[in-house]
């Protein structure tokens, strides 16, 4: 089911959609080496294969960790004899220096178009010599709609998929298959294939009926409930956040248990990090830091042990003072930007680190706060049209934000020349 050309790629429209960067490269046949990074099963190899299929270049796949320099030499010889070769190098963060030194001149000449694939952060894990010769693109987890589209394609494709078999997937089974794989299409297709090929057809209709229990078994993930409409998962996550926001520790632990029983560690971790900054925020910043530590621990140890740090975080957040002042402040600022509510940066704040800046009046009247008592001096920072705007509306539900509220008010008064 791997795509044969760029039009068949599922998801990743920020890269392969109309007018986007990889689509432009393919359409113009001006390919450059690139690194694709993101979670497993999200389309890194598929994009490389689709690029090769659309451009008709030779396509070779190697693994930086397991394939030797000799395999790279074979690809280089092929490129010399037949022209450009697209090389997908999986686990590129494991590329050794001898292999890297061999590849560099071939990348420079353009004979090899390298497409590196990795789940690691390339800005940290990949050698700068390779990184400087490639463009870096993030491949994002597929949405449920993306996975559903791919599954339906697999069920109807009579050549590469399961189209020759009479398969009926129950709506609740389809929803669970699309959701429980957390954006990993490979896992979804593997589970679908296992389910179809291990389920005997009905005697009379010869139809293979795939139910929710079958998909649960093939995925090894339990569904939250029998969920034909696909809403139960989101309802539980919503109740989870609202219970923490409402300071009900028992309800929050109940919904945490339901999510963990379904094996959905990823949604729990994402939601907890969001809650820590959205609902607790400046009322208790240390609780947010503790939540980050708990989520990190949960990711490292996995289930079932992950339930321990996560329950600590949930209780901590439930019983913490709450404040949504930070999210309201940034949302108000973004709303102004969306409606054109901004003006030119004041001249004294503009960059003055270039020849001719003073002629333009840039940075001329800037007052350096550290040259003044208490490292502060009144001067205008906001553009003229919104110079009196206040986005942050502090609360005093916790000691920390109460102190911020006092400091914010004091600075506002001093800015206006009041005592």
TrEMBL record:
Keywords: ATP-binding, Nucleotide-binding. The keyword Aminoacyl-tRNA synthetase does not apply. SMART domains: AAA. The keyword tRNA-binding does not apply. Belongs to the AAA ATPase family. RarA/MGS1/WRNIP1 subfamily. One of its GO terms (molecular function) is ATP binding. One of its GO terms (biological process) is DNA-templated DNA replication. Transmembrane segments: none annotated. Residues 30-142 form the AAA+ ATPase domain. PANTHER family: ATPASE WRNIP1 (PTHR13779:SF7), WERNER HELICASE-INTERACTING PROTEIN 1 FAMILY MEMBER (PTHR13779). InterPro entries: AAA+_ATPase, AAA_assoc_2, AAA_ATPase_RarA/MGS1/WRNIP1, ATPase_AAA_core, DNA_pol3_clamp-load_cplx_C, MgsA_C, P-loop_NTPase. Coiled coil: none annotated. It holds the Pfam family AAA_assoc_2. This is Replication-associated recombination protein A.
